[in-house]
Each structure stands twice: as structure tokens, then as C-alpha cells.
Specification:
Enzyme class: isomerase
Pfam families: DEAD, Helicase_C, RecG_dom3_C, RecG_wedge
Family: Belongs to the helicase family. RecG subfamily.
Organism: Phocaeicola acetigenes
Radius of gyration: 30 Å
Largest sheet: 7 strands, mixed
InterPro entries: ATP-dep_DNA_helicase_RecG (IPR004609), DEAD/DEAH_box_helicase_dom (IPR011545), Helicase_ATP-bd (IPR014001), Helicase_C-like (IPR001650), NA-bd_OB-fold (IPR012340), P-loop_NTPase (IPR027417), RecG/Mfd (IPR047112), RecG_dom3_C (IPR045562)
Structural class: alpha/beta
Length: 699
Amino acid sequence: MFDLSTRDIKYLQGVGPQRAAILNKELQIYSLRDLLYYFPYKYVDRSRLYYIHEIDGNMPYIQLKGEVLSFETIGEGRQRRLVGHFSDGTGIVDLVWFQGLKYVMGKYKAHEEYIVFGKPTVFNGRINIAHPDIDPAGELTLSSMRMQPYYNTTEKMKRSGLNSHTLEKLMKNLFQTLQCEVIDETLSPQLIHTHRLMPLTEALYNIHFPQSPDLLRKAQYRLKFEELFYIQLNILRYTKERRNKFRGLLFERVGEVFNTFYSRNLPFQLTGAQKRVIKEMRRDMGSGRQMNRLLQGDVGSGKTLVALMTMLIALDNGYQACMMAPTEILATQHYETIRRFLEGMDVRVELLTGTVKGKRRETILRDLLTGAVNILIGTHAVIEDTVNFSSLGLVVIDEQHRFGVAQRAKLWAKNTCPPHVLVMTATPIPRTLAMTLYGDLDVSVIDELPPGRKPIQTVHQFDNRRASMYAFIRKQIQEGRQAYIVYPLIQESEKMDIKNLEEGYLHICEEFPEYKVSKVHGKMKPAEKDEEMQRFLANETQIMVATTVIEVGVNVPNASVMVIENAERFGLSQLHQLRGRVGRGADQSYCILVTGYKLTEETRKRIEIMVQTNDGFEIAEADLKLRGPGDLEGTQQSGVAFDLKIADIARDGQLLQYVREVAEKLLDSDPNGVLPENAIVWRQLKELRKKNVNWSVIS
């Protein structure tokens, strides 16, 4: 049988060792299979020829037939470029190359007929086409070209002559090679028939060389279906296996510790969402199976309180609990918050971070082993081999995307029977993304703010109207409040004309001489950063000038104003996280998004969404649609469990839900993979797990 994955790309006609090395390094294409599954990012109709007198600089892509009258080299050094004056008899356009000049001069000749394809622009009153595709006129049959594929390439590839057009030619050579071979089908006949899917070989040909728009749609659907189906099948199979393998600790009662806290120490009435989520966790931990739950809640929604009450259930059943946070600042904040909640109760809480050393550390480690420490809060220091528990029953992981798989697994190993696991995130994750990133976890959502909290008012301000903004900040401080002012960079960047923190700090000090100003950024030592944040928390400073390091930081209920300079430089999720630093007290809070006048359409949409809604989930959905899953801040992690080559989680959400149901039905009917009609499916899943797709997050 023809195994594409074992055929080295260098042996394909037109590749060779030199090009193979570039394809290996730039696109991770090593085999014929890798090339076959490197899909086009767009298609352009090339069935029409234009005349030069018809075109202008606003057209997307055009195709011309004519000859190069002459070539000339213009400029020196980096400004050097090659210009070919191209004519079809109705006018002249300039073909321009900034790279590969020697290659172009050797390949193309004056006064020979070519078909030229590219995007026209206007420079110095003349129409230019930069780095066009050029083919000898006799080699192209226009009627057969129709939808031409376009492939993403890197600058290094283009400099070596490996542009999209070259990849297209290599793909044609590959299909020539495959003419006499059979490509193994990767879905069962039953799935193909039931869901009316195009056969694999036909789909692969039409994804690269679509014979019609309808066949392209069918090919895309088939390949997206398969990609999402195997991701969901892997997640669901793993989840079922884990549930069967790990029975989980049985937390049968809610006792004295929980009830004492609820009746005496609970600082305010729980919201309906908090009550619902705690009940879901009680049910999990009392079921005899291991809890694996993702708790999503917007900034300030009360996740820490819910986590604490869940930990108290562990204590009532004779077990210890542990909470792991990604930074020392956040771990310390959780420690102080939880100690304050538990004041007067006989519950021992300890903090373990990299800075806890000597006798203090020895005491904590000894008392964890005897069970004298009930709750341990810390950074990744808690997963070190020297940290051992008497009976760890519950692990809470905050901002779970910041921890790797191996780190989380080490906490599981701290007990012979794996503890219950609760992972929390303040980054709202769209449902479709959560199903894929965290598909093996049950999901709980806190979708209400605690009583007394007012929605943050968000406004968009252009940067030439600072006087009114500063007057507003001054009025808020006079009323006893505090303000954050956030900048995207620490120091001036030559490439970007944006405000920087150092200049901004001096400017704010001059603008507000009557108030004290803090400065915090990522290049400061942790101790300096903590000291500045503590000063702001104590209201010793009234204005905090910072970079995004405050995105996850101390809770300052008195801060009521968040100014974000150059807001156009931030993604939606990050803007929402920064806004969440205010609105934590009973006072009305404000977020001011400062931008210049020149904004792209996408930036305008981002700003409008921020002004219109405080709903983190609505914002996350919009962010996913605008930017795609690979760019989502706070959700994408190193070692993501899948490599999407064609599906798009933002746009293919309905298909994702559908294939999940298909995968669930298949698993229900054939949980052990023994039915002959599913043999192809289980074999393919096994192959995918062997290949260089990283499934480790869910394995």
C-alpha cells in the first residue's frame, strides 16, 4: 500500500535536497503527505484576461497577456529594485521585484509573450504590479485554470524562488505521482454514506484544484468534518477511559467546617450562579468518580469564594486541598483573601512560593505530611518532588492555561487515588473553543456579578481631547478614588509611533503634581513590583501608570478609573481583562479607551464591542471571530492538542457541535472499538496519535 507519510519530499519532481531543506524548516513539510495536507488559503478566478487600459489601482487581482519591453535596475542598497516595463499594446504597466533580482533576470526575457498575474497599485502616477506571477503564454490554458489555489509562504521561501506558484506546480507533480496509486480512505464507508461526504481522494484533489465552486465546498466540508471528528473522538474516548479508570475519592458529607463558614464567615449573600456551581461540584465529588471541572467566571465574579467553599467540603471529608496560581502575586493575593475569609476558624492555610525558604519552608513541608496544614496555596513550587501531602483530596488550578500538562499531572500524583480537580479561568472561553481546548472537562459558568457591583461604563476617547479626560480623573481622585493608566510598551519603539510608559509616567507626574504616582512594568524586579502595587493598594499612591502586568494583579476595590492608551494595540480579550481591574467596589467605575483617529475597520469593531458590552463571553465570541483561535490571548497554550489545517473553530462552530454528537454516538455503540464497520476509524485515530500532531493535552 502507498504510504505517503514515509515518502521523503526531496524525491518529488521539482524539489530536490535544497528545496526540501527549506520546506522542512519553513513549513515543516517532510513527506508527500505533509505537502498534500498543506492546503491553499484562498482561490482566485484566473479564467479572464484584462487589457491594460481597463485596469486601475483599486482592483484586487488582474491577469494580463503581453511582453516585457525592457528591464532596468533602479536605486542602490536596500532601495535597489528591478523594473520590467510590460505592454499589451493598449498601455504599459511596471512589473517590480525587490528580491531575487538575479533569478528574475535569468528566467524572463524581453519581447517574449507572457501571462502576468498580480495585484495592481499606483506609485508615482504609474500602475505597478509587485512580484507578479509570470508564465509563458503557451504554457497556460485559461479555460482550465478557473480557480487558482494560493498557498501561504515565508519571506525566506520567496527569496529562494519557492512562492505560491511554485508550490502549486509541486502539487501538480504530486498528483501526477499519485495517478496510479490508491490513497487509503480515512473514514468508514458508513460515515461517508450517512453524512454524504466526498471520498478522500476526490476531496484532496478538489481542495487544491477545484473543478467548480460547488466541488470546492464539498471538499472543504469533507476535510473539515474529518479533522474535527477525530479531535472530538480522541477527547471523548480519553474522557470515558479516564472515568472508568479513576473512580475518584468519595466526599459523602458537607459538615462542620463548611457549615460554620456558611453561617458565620460568609461575607455576603451568594449569587444564584455561585450556588448553582457549588451544587454541581458537590454532586461531582459525592458521585464516587473523579471531578474534572472547568470553572469559567468573568473578572470579579467570585470564583475564589466558590473555590474556597469547594475546598472546605474536602476538609469536611478528612482531606487536604491545594490551590496553584501562575504568579507569586496572584498566589499571595489568593492566600490573603482566603485567610481573611476564614478568620476565626480552625483551618490552617499556608503559602508556598519560590521565595519561602529555610525553616519556614521546612515547617510547611513537615506539617503537610502530618496533615496539620489543611489548605496549601502556591505557585508551581507546590509540584516539586519535596512537597508531599498526608491526604490530598482536591486540587484547584487558577488560570489553568498557564500550566503545562506535565505540571498538572504532577499534582495528580500527590495521592495514590487521584484528587478531584477544579481548574479556573477568568478568560471567558467561547463554547466552541472550550469544547476543543477543554473538551475532557465538565464546564461550570458563573455568569452573575456579586450584589452591589455596578457594570463598568466604557467610553472611546480620541487622544487629542485629553483636557476633559484629565479633569474627569482629577474629579474621581478628589472623591477618594484611584486610577490606572496603561501603556502598551515600556520604552519608545522606533517602528511604532505610540506612547510609551516612561514618557507617560513623566507626563502624568507633571499633569497631576498634587498626587502621588506609581509605576509598574514587567522589567522591574518582583520585589519592586510588589512594593509599588502594595503602595497603590494602601492608597499611598493615587495613580498607577503600568503596562499589562496589572492584567493579573492585586485587587484594588478603590480604583474606579482605567485609562488604556493606544487601545487599538490591544486585543479584545486583553482589553476586557484590563478593564476588569476596576469595578471591584461599590462605586461606579469607568474605562476610557484612548486611540488616534486613524483606525482600521477591525479596530473600530473591537472598540465598539468594548463600549457596548461588559459580557466577557460575548466579547470572547467576537474576539474568536475577529482574530481566530490561534491569536486568542489567554486561551491558546503551548502544546495545544490539535493542529487545525482547514477547520476554523470560529466559523465552523455548528459543524464542531455536529461532529461531537457523531463521535459520541460511535463511542456509545462501539466503546471498545471491536465492530468491523468502525475498523478504519480506530486505525486512523491510532495513526493520528503516532504522527507529529500534539495530542498530549488530552492524552
